[in-house]
Specification:
Strand order of the largest sheet: 1-13-11-5-7-9-10-4-12
CATH topology: Glucose Oxidase, domain 1
Structural class: alpha/beta
Number of helices: 12
Radius of gyration: 33 Å
Shape: globular
Largest sheet: 9 strands, mixed
Order of helices and strands: HHHHEEEEHEHEHEHHEHEHEHEEE
Helix content: 25-40%
Length: 411
């Protein structure tokens, strides 16, 4: 992580310099008329050259040292940098490594069921402890704020067979308006996946919670309301794979499921000099939003009916790295985080394994998709800092399967 620069504050002057001498007082000792006459002769030229009062005042003002103005922004930068340097690090969570999972009898291999408690419904969001949030506040250095949310009507048409919402404004009086949405899909645009969104087709949902308790009705579990009631706040990190590709001349085909190997994700972090910490929200930019907004209407219509998306490698080794890095949540500007549908890797056939199974079902790690990371990425590229404070307030929909993130990054 790049370190904050330290400015040098200006210093105030001290008023009249101590070396400025007062005019000398001439004292004549009377020793007779001759002495007086000689003294008068000596003083006469000085008296003749004595400046007028106004001129003397101006000269004195010019001679008086001026107090230098305090460079206020630099003082702030120095104070901020000092605060970041002295901010205490949050203690590392005491969690099993991926190769030590499961810790609960009967749980699938690689599943973190029971790690945060047998009744837990928050998963890795538990890693965003009060101490981690306090430490994350050190990532706020200049106060710039970036919204990470696309408008509700993008993509248009919606992907994955989702419907298009209808927005109606209703007027009650000449000075009162109200509005409502029909056919609103909370995952049609920028979104969080709740832990109930995807379960492993054979091994079930997070923490072994049965389908009978995931109903959307009273007492339902693993809904987005769990995240909404808690709130999400902590340190975020951007992995700008899109720029990493641009520097190397690689272009993804955003109409297909082009694969981004795990090595390119790690290479991007290394090139950025970005350090991952426990409890981070990982934001992966591949450039999907920028590419989608530049597509023709025909291309957008094709993508809506045959949704494919480039993404990171969705293999167990990537899942293992995310868990062992103590990531709290992962989000991307792409529609699915991993390449979708999973393409063949090397000489291996297309896998039926998905990051969604590992993250949502095994770890309880929320997944964000179709986030708008463009302005944030531009700013990170300008100042070389890829960490920030992130907040997110999902909609409090009891039993909800997903929600717009209402996410902000603050640098």
């Amino acid at each position: 992580m790049a370190k904050a620069g330290r400015g040098k504050s200006g210093s105030q002057g001290k008023g009249r310099a101590s070396g400025t001498a007062a005019p000398a007082k001439h004292k004549t000792i009377a020793t007779g008329k001759a002495s007086k006459s000689k003294a008068s002769a000596r003083l006469a030229p000085i008296a003749a050259k004595k400046p007028a009062p106004k001129i003397a005042a101006k000269a004195a003002a010019r001679a008086k040292p001026k107090a230098r103005a305090i460079a206020r922004p630099r003082v702030k930068a120095r104070a901020t940098a000092a605060a970041v340097a002295t901010r205490p690090r949050a203690p590392e969570p005491n969690l099993p490594r991926h190769d030590q999972l499961p810790t609960r009898a009967g749980a699938p291999a690689g599943a973190a069921w029971g790690v945060f408690g047998d009744d837990d419904q928050l998963g890795t969001i538990n890693l965003m402890t009060p101490a981690a949030v306090i430490e994350a506040a050190g990532s706020i250095r200049n106060g710039r704020v970036f919204s990470l949310n696309l408008p509700f009507n993008i993509p248009d048409p919606p992907l994955f067979g989702r419907g298009k919402h209808v927005h109606t404004i209703k007027q009650y009086a000449s000075y009162i308006l109200d509005d409502y949405l029909d056919n609103f899909y909370p995952q049609a645009s920028s979104q969080w996946d709740a832990l109930c969104h995807v379960k492993h087709p054979k091994l079930g949902a997070y923490n072994g919670i049965p389908d009978s308790e995931i109903t959307g009705y009273g007492g339902t579990k693993l809904g987005i309301d769990n995240l909404a009631r808690r709130g999400i706040a902590g340190r975020g990190v951007l992995v700008d794979i899109g720029r990493y590709h641009e520097k190397r001349g690689r272009k993804l085909n955003f109409m297909t499921n082009d694969l981004i190997p795990f090595e390119e994700l790690l290479g991007t972090l290394e090139e950025q000099k970005t350090t991952i910490r426990a409890g981070d929200v990982l934001l992966v930019r591949i450039g999907w939003t920028k590419a989608y907004l530049a597509m023709s209407p025909e291309e957008k219509a094709t993508l809506a009916t045959q949704t494919k998306s480039p993404g990171i490698e969705g293999t167990p080794r990537v899942a293992r790295w995310l868990w062992d890095s103590r990531i709290a949540a992962a989000a991307s500007d792409s529609p699915a985080l991993e390449a979708m549908p999973p393409p063949p890797i090397g000489d291996q056939p297309a896998s039926r394994d998905l990051l969604h199974f590992h993250l949502l079902s095994f770890f309880g790690m929320p997944i964000g998709e179709m986030w708008d990371l463009e302005s944030l990425a531009d700013d990170c590229a300008r100042d070389g800092r890829y960490d920030f404070f992130i907040t997110s307030a999902p909609l409090n929909i009891p039993g909800g399967v997903g929600s717009p993130p209402n996410a902000l990054a603050i640098k």
